[in-house]
Amino acid sequence: MKKTANRRNFLKLGLASVIGMTVGKDLLVKPAHAADLPQLTEDDPQAKALQYVHESPDSEKHCANCALIQGNDGDEWRPCGIFPGKAVNANGWCSAWVKKP
To answer: Quick one: 59 and 26 in the same domain?
Structure first.
């Protein structure tokens, strides 16, 4: 009985994944525009967990020179891969910061 339950769960998960990828692909193709996104607040639970601040304490490390930020250089608020659906301040910083190559 346990093998049937595991196989059944595997098939459900596999089917859900295929459906999610099929339906979600349009969301992944559409680029995020910071003007369309709400600004990330420092009170946001995920921001708190990653110690996000709007002003970086280190002038060498800020969102504008992070590999995870998206959008156009020079924009004050830009989308970030760490905070989907929110725009981060280009002068900000979080503990997920990674230097651009």
So the answer is: no
